[in-house]
Amino acid sequence: MKLSGHTEPFAVLGHPIGHTLSPIMHNASLASLDMDAIYLAFDVHPDKLMSVLPSMQEMGFGGVNLTVPLKEVAFNGLDQLDDTAKNLGAVNTVEFLEDGTIRGHNTDGYGFLAAVKEAFNCSVKDLSIFILGSGGAGRAVAITSAVEGAKQIAVADLDEERTERLKVELADIAPATEVVVVPNDKELWSASCLKADLVVQATPVGMNPDDPSLLEKAAFRDGQMVFDLVYMYPQTAFMKAAEAVGAKAANGLDMLLYQGARAFTIWTGKEPDVDAMRKALQDSVYK
Questions:
Q1: Which of 62, 64, 78, 165 is the most exposed place for a label (fewest CB within 10 A)?
Q2: Same domain for 188 and 278
């Protein structure tokens, strides 16, 4: 890595921040492109974020990523938001503009769409999608899919009130997409999953290696596309259950990769070395 008195810093902020993989992938791309830059990680309390960001701009930071619990803080605190942040109600990428202003973006939706294209060579347009989990990640997937023209989105969650709120949001954002809330019943979840073209697992289940699949293999079918947002392992139990009956399954590592790649381009105007970023992530996660 090239470092000098002119090194441009980038960073990810969160609270806590020790879990982040962003420095691993971004520094791999910076080194591959021989850029005089470095990507760091800082623990910033939510109460301090809106004073820290202008200070980082003054210090010459080239851009910043945000992770939990700062995404909503920035959404509510920044004056400039692009459409991705407005639609998702959260900011994960901060751009420092030459006129001294700060703009918020959200690259999670882009990361999801790029990962689906990479894994299954298709878009979500006109697909029937079953999403298991309607928290931050599931909500981002649902909104992005609706905006991109998904035919139907069925959402299931232990918290049915949350899925009902998401249904109202989606009806406002993309009225052409049919939205179904699947009641909290495993048999109904399985039946809805079986009918979908694309299945997205957006809960934290699977982050521990011994976590069982939330759905049995009878919930899947041959030729189906299954995307598990968990990326800690090459295969989760959810993926294995789907693949056992002929479904094609992918984990969430490419979503992490492509949302970071999009942020890199927003900051630098350059295309990142995606292969170097992917290898760095795989070497770190799957060692």
A1: 165
A2: no
Q: Give the CA radius of gyration of the chain.
A: 19
Identify which of 134, 192, 200, 129 has the alpha carbon closest to the alpha carbon of residue 162: 134
- Residues with active-site annotation: 71
Distance CA 178, CA 201 (A): 19
Total domains in the fold of the chain: 2
Residue 134: CB atoms within 10 Å: 26
Measured between its terminal Cα atoms, the distance across the chain in Å is 22
From CA 117, how far away is CA 109, in angstroms rounded? Answer: 12
- What are 41-98's pLDDT values in tens digits? 999 999 999 999 999 999 999 999 999 899 999 999 999 999 999 999 999 999 999 9
**pTM, two decimal places:** 0.94
Determine whether 76 is exposed, middle or buried from the number of CB atoms within 10 Å of its CB (0-12, 13-18, 19+). exposed
Q: Please give the average per-residue pLDDT across 15-42, as a whole number.
A: 96
